[in-house]
Amino acid sequence: MKFIYIFVLLIFSISSYSITINVSGVVEDLNNSPIQNHRVVIEVIDTTTFYSSIDSVLTNATGNYSYTISNAGISQTAKIIITTHDCVGALHTLNAFPGGGSNYNFQICAGGNPSQCIAQFTFFEDTIISGTFHFINQSTNNTVNIWKVNGNIISQQVDFTYTFNTNPSSNTVCLEIINYNQTCNDSKCTTVIVNYCNTSFTSVVSGLNVEFVANSSPSADYYVWDFDDGSSQTITNDTIQHLYTTGADYNVKLTAYNIYAQDTCSAIDSSIVSLYPVGQLIGYVFTGNTYLDVANVVLYKKNIADGKLLVVETTSLETDTNTMAQFYQFNNKEYGEYYIKCIISENSAVYTQYIDTWASQDANMQIVSWQGAEMQSLNSDQQVANINLKKAEVIFTGGEGVIELL
């Protein structure tokens, strides 16, 4: 606790309306230590002469103060009001009349110097609103708080929140404080770097090749791509091409980095890229000069579990109206490995003349056995696999003809 000892010496002149008042005293804490630079306010109110005045003095290095009032308009009924504040800014008041008493005590602070003030604050960036910062006041003995951003007064609240409009940017934020009796002021300034990133990307799929385009604000200094297939790449361009080896769902992640004033910001975007590219399997069916009237072409895939072939689709032969050549086609098939076989219908007029034959890359090949069937790999917009139908062989035994289906 602190006490103010005020000695009031009232010296009256002969005239009842011309009084000189000397006010003096000392401000100490409970440890009898003087409090220097502490403001004491003296107010005089005279209802007889209607005189009034208010002034203040500061204690010196030993905690003493002295103030003299001398005016012809002060009568013996004048009232003297002496006030001061404690450490938390609460007002304490003493009343004194001319000719009455001394040693007025004020109970204020428990210790320390209430006139000392220290400006201090911390800040942090908002995690949701980009460019927004929260400033927390941690000052000591601050009654008045003045916040400035780049030299402009923004707020006089204890704490405040501010959104910077320029990104990236370097800004100066200052806090100026004044204590309750205006005997102390202090300030602190710091640099606030605004540097936040926003990023996203789009993708254009062409088969197993994907073009990725980054969209960042501001434009990033560099990008790190994770393609979710075990590979990644760091580039400075906004656009990148990537070729996958198999169709699947890939969780692609982009991290954009921007460097400003030794500060690095990063932003992440991710998206599922579904790669199930499709293409066309097509081929001609060669039968020499014979027209194949009724036949089906069957598309198979091998079952990984047991190695057996599974039917994917069956289609009929088509005829090219310009060349009259016969062909088949399977459209919108996912990339993968297939087997293709032409099966002649029993209702065909040439059923006994040809044998069911597998497709081959070599137009001269005539594959009729499953063991020799050639796998067709679809990994582009179109895969051509022709079928060269094998004729049935006739073996004569004892005058009878036997068709041997190999």
Could you explain how this protein is built, in words?
By secondary structure, the chain is mostly beta strands. It has four domains: 2-96, Immunoglobulin-like (Sandwich); 121-194, Immunoglobulin-like, CATH 2.60.40; 198-275, Immunoglobulin-like (Sandwich), CATH 2.60.40; 278-395, Immunoglobulin-like. The chain is 0% helix and 57% strand. It contains no helices and 35 strands. The protein has strands at residues 2-12, 19-29, 39-46, 51-58, 64-71, 79-85, 91-96, 121-125, 132-137, 144-149, 152-155, 160-163, 169-178, 185-194, 198-206, 209-217, 222-226, 232-235, 239-243, 248-260, 263-275, 278-286, 295-302, 309-316, 318-319, 326-334, 336-344, 354-355, 357-358, 376-378, 382-384, 387-388, 390-391, 393-397, 400-404. Strands 22, 25, 26, 31 and 32 form a five-stranded mixed β-sheet that branches. Strands 23, 24, 27, 29 and 30 form a five-stranded antiparallel β-sheet that branches. The protein has a four-stranded antiparallel β-sheet with strand order 4-3-6-7, with no helix packed on it. A hairpin with a 5-residue loop joins strand 17 (222-226) and strand 18 (232-235). It is rod-shaped, with a radius of gyration of 49 Å. It starts with a strand and ends with a strand.
Low-confidence stretches: 1-15, 401-406
Which range does the strand content fall in?
Answer: over 45%
Number-wise, the strands total 35
Q: In angstroms, what separates the terminal alpha carbons?
A: 116 Å
